[in-house]
Design a protein that fits this description.
single chain, alpha/beta, two-stranded antiparallel sheet, about 35% helix, globular
């Protein structure tokens, strides 16, 4: 029987990917701290996906590598606290840069221009022929979706990172169930149970009360909402909270404090979009496949919003219009 705790402890390093883009890197940072303290991981590095929500980056699509400034390039993009992004005449600091600043060192990130192929190349560099372990950490649980579920808005990034994770034999972490307001906690739990039934369970790790301190000097400087949910729970908040301009609701309770570790190969059997795009070499190719499958994605939503309202910091679509766009996309 595999001893996964030993595998994590004996690895030279563990890399935790903020699977869904943008603010998920905050949860990756927190999970790294927990792995080091509770599991005894030697060294852990969070990894960010450079695709921010519209409130940070009011341009459609993930951040292209040509728009990133003050970063070192290899197969990954190495982000420091001084890294920023230029989009037209607008510039901003991505969430990954805030985490790098907190750690006072470079941390890896990926762009999605080359889809699964490009992300896989970065992951392969980081795992170093099995010396290191990679965990793809999804906030909310959308990574467990097939792709056609009601209220699923953002399956593309999760599917790209999942497919790349499976290629390097990494694990998947599902944390703060339902915290992004897309899939319900009950639905995510059902999916996790399905993974357990086919032998895909690795373990579960929870936050302790003092882990609230890990969020300090960081959580109030960033604009993530889903990754804020465990901090709210640690501070004693239990109940429902509106996010995304009141357009979604997240539940905060004891489940918000847990992270389920699962086998990536088991999740690949569930996630139909990840299966279909596994060999893609460009974002355009992955997007085209999602359209053929009839699966609306976050890219569809952002493109639709940009066509209606334009781009840039002055182009801020009202959430009522965004709801209409989502309804239109999910009914096609």
């Amino acid at each position: 029987m595999d001893n996964y705790v030993t595998k994590l402890r004996e690895a030279e390093s563990v890399v935790v990917v903020g699977a869904g883009g943008g603010g998920d890197v905050i949860s990756a940072f927190i999970f790294c701290k927990v792995l080091e303290e509770i599991v005894g991981v030697r060294e852990c590095s969070p990894l960010g996906v450079l695709w921010e929500r519209w409130v940070v980056d009011p341009y459609p699509g993930p951040i292209p590598v040509a728009s990133v400034r003050n970063a070192r390039l290899s197969r990954c993009v190495w982000v420091s606290g001084d890294t920023y992004v230029v989009r037209g005449e607008y510039s901003f600091k991505p969430h990954t840069a805030y985490v790098a600043e907190k750690l006072r060192r470079e941390i890896p990130a990926v762009t999605l221009e080359k889809s699964v192929s490009g992300v896989y190349e970065c992951f392969k560099e980081l795992v170093r022929n099995g010396e290191n372990v990679l965990i793809d950490l999804d906030v909310g649980g959308d990574i467990l979706a097939e792709g056609w579920e009601d209220n699923l808005w953002s399956p593309l990034t999760d599917s790209i990172t999942l497919a790349a994770t499976a290629k390097v034999g990494g694990f998947v972490g599902v944390t703060a169930l339902g915290a992004d307001g897309e899939l319900t906690q009950d639905f995510v739990l059902q999916k996790i149970s399905k993974v357990i039934s086919v032998g895909g369970y690795v373990g579960v790790i929870g936050l302790w009360s003092h882990h609230a301190s890990f969020y300090e000097d960081l959580i109030d400087r960033v604009k993530t909402e889903a990754s804020r949910a465990p901090y709210l729970a640690l501070k004693g908040f239990v109940g429902s909270r509106k996010i995304r301009g009141g357009n979604r609701t997240m539940e905060v309770n004891a489940l918000t404090l847990t992270t389920f570790l699962l086998k990536s190969e088991s999740l690949m059997k569930i996630n139909k979009l990840a299966q279909a795009i596994s060999e893609t070499t460009s974002l355009a190719e992955a997007w085209s496949i999602s359209k053929k499958l009839g699966i609306p994605t976050e890219l569809d939503l952002e493109v639709a919003a940009s066509k209606m309202y334009g781009v840039g910091p002055e182009a801020s679509p009202e959430w009522g219009v965004v709801r209409s766009l989502i309804k239109k996309l999910t009914n096609t």
